[in-house]
Amino acid sequence: MSAARPVTDASFADDVLLSDKPVLVDFWATWCPPCRAVSPILDKLAADHADTLKVVKLDVDQNPVTARQYGITSIPTMKVFQGGRPVKTLVGALPQAALEAELAPYLRSAA
């Protein structure tokens, strides 16, 4: 089972915009090989950093409203939301080390 939870157009506001911690949203599609390649990395981040970062997945084919609202034209695209706003965008299937480096400010302990 995936550690990154699915979100939809209907649940996006509650799950992402109203979250009390940063949220990494993976905009993806089932037919996208690079999306499938990055998925296990995101699951590991979700499991390893559950206390400081929430990781969710939004299927752009099933949820076109949110994808269009945030200008998603290439997948995989990952956006970090903090305080209800997008604060970082990453495009493409990055290796784990690069992804962790890009996300380091959001992976730090809340303590």
Could you name the key traits of this structure?
protein-disulfide reductase activity, alpha/beta, electron transport, 111 residues, 5-stranded mixed beta sheet, Thioredoxin
What does this molecule look like?
With about 110 residues, this protein is α/β, with parallel strands linked by helices. Helices cover about 35% and strands about 25% of the residues. It has one domain: 3-Layer(aba) Sandwich (Glutaredoxin). Strand 2, helix 2 and strand 3 form a beta-alpha-beta unit. The protein has a 5-stranded mixed β-sheet. The mean pLDDT is about 95. Belongs to the thioredoxin family.
CATH homologous superfamily placement: Glutaredoxin
- Name of the CATH first level: Alpha Beta
Overall residue-averaged pLDDT value:
93
Q: Secondary-structure element sequence?
A: EHEHEHEEH
CATH architecture: 3-Layer(aba) Sandwich
Overall 3D form:
globular
Unreliable segments of 5+ consecutive residues: none
Biggest β-sheet strands, sense, barrel: 5 strands, mixed
**Radius of gyration in whole Å, from Cα?**
13 Å
The number of helices is 4
Structural class, by secondary structure, is: alpha/beta
Strand order of the largest sheet: 1-3-2-4-5
Disulfide bonds: 32-35
Site (Contributes to redox potential value): 33-34
Domain Thioredoxin: 1-111
InterPro entries: Thioredoxin, Thioredoxin-like_sf, Thioredoxin_CS, Thioredoxin_domain
